[in-house]
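> run fold YtxH domain-containing protein
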Amino acid sequence: MKAAFLVGGAVGYVLGTRAGRQQFDKIRSKAQELWEDPRVQDGISDVEHRASDLVREKGPEIKEKVTGAVKSASEQVRGGKDQDSGTNGTASSSTTGSGTV
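> ok
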């Protein structure tokens, strides 16, 4: 979060300044130093590991939810078949009109 704030501040400063290329090069150099700082790289590595762990942990759950959502959407596109197992794809009694879907 802090790194993103610093990068955003640096970009805003560069875009807003009239100091020209020299100031831009200074900021770019400082940003490069910050990026190469071992503490920053360790933080990035920690985030990558936590993200990988989260994907491994939650991946199957997310896969099931997405699969269910796709099946549901697919059924709705095909006319609601299997939505209400007691109707065999026909209009329910609450449907008004000619009885066709």
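The CA atoms of residues 53 and 59 lie 10 Å apart.
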